[in-house]
Amino acid sequence: EVQLMESGGGLIQPGGSLTLSCVASGFTFSTNAMSWVRQAPGKGLEWVSSITGSGTDTFYADSVRGRFTISRDNSKNTLYVQMNNLRAEDTAIYFCAKYTVMGDLDHWGQGSLVTVSS
Amino acid sequence: EVLLTQSPGILSLSLGETATLSCRASQSVSSNYLAWYHQIPGQAPRVLIYGASSRAAGIPDRFSGSGSGTDFTLTINRLEPEDVGVYYCQQYGNSVRTFGQGTKLEIK
After folding, report:
1. Residue A68 forms beta bridges with which residues?
2. Which of B99, B36, B26, B68 shows the shortest CA–CA distance to A36?
3. Which of A112, B69, B73, B91 has the fewest CB atoms within 10 Å, counting from its CB?
4. A3 touches chain B (CB under 8 A)
5. Within its chain, how far is the Cα of A68 from the centroid?
6. Nearest chain B CA: its distance from A14 CA (Å)
7. Does residue A59 belong to the interface with chain B, where contact is any CB pair within 8 Å?
8. CB contact, 8 Å: B51 with chain A?
């Protein structure tokens, strides 16, 4: 059974930094691209970032490029996103999700809440 | 960036009716790489359709996707109570993926 478990969320002041982790199990982690998707309170889904299985290529939404860094450690079956210079508008539930070979997101974690507030 | 516009914003129908949800892209979606997701409040999204028209594993045939280029449709036949929630389209034909703003489906 595929499982994705996010951690690392919490309350952080504007301008601060936070790193989220997502531990994966139940599939061959290193062969699947992964993604972070967020959802602000009461709002829709926003794609944040993706990374290829090898970690060679990364992609970002304009809203986070230059502030967020996605990475992975295939030896630990873990996906990360380092978030710097956080803003109030970054407040959201952050989901990690697994890509299929077709490109859709077929498994999602339950999410980790990040609240940016003073 | 490919912008996706979903309509209607809210859809209110009765059990057994057919729901038709639209997703329009600001430019052609490469290789019709478009997916539909369903999200129930408090839960993670679940993929329904990928490649514009292929049902994901375990999705009943009441759900069907169609369309190409810039216009895509999700059709849900014989509405059931568990179909309530928000439906999102997403394009993955571009390295910068985008979601539509969602259509909320209510059962009268």
Report:
1. A65, A83
2. B99
3. B69
4. no
5. 10
6. 26
7. yes
8. yes
DSSP code of A85?
S
- pLDDT band of B95, cuts 50, 70, 90: confident
Question: What are A79-95's pLDDT values in tens digits?
Answer: 999 999 999 999 999 99
Fill in the amino acid letter for A2.
V
Considering only CB atoms, A47 lies closest to which of B46, B51, B99, namely B99
A46 touches chain B (CB under 8 A): yes
Q: How far apart are CA A91 and CA A107, in angstroms?
A: 23
What are the tokens at B105? Answer: 């489906």
The residue to which tokens 């069907």 are assigned:
B64
Task: Supply the pLDDT for residue A77.
Answer: 98
Secondary structure of B3-33 in the HEC alphabet?
CEEEECCEEEECCCCCEEEEEEECCCCHHHC
Whether B47 and B74 have beta carbons less than 8 Å apart is answered as no
- Per-residue pLDDT of B15-38, as tens digits, reads 999 999 999 999 999 999 999 999
User: What's phi and psi for B23, nearest 5 deg?
Assistant: -140, 120
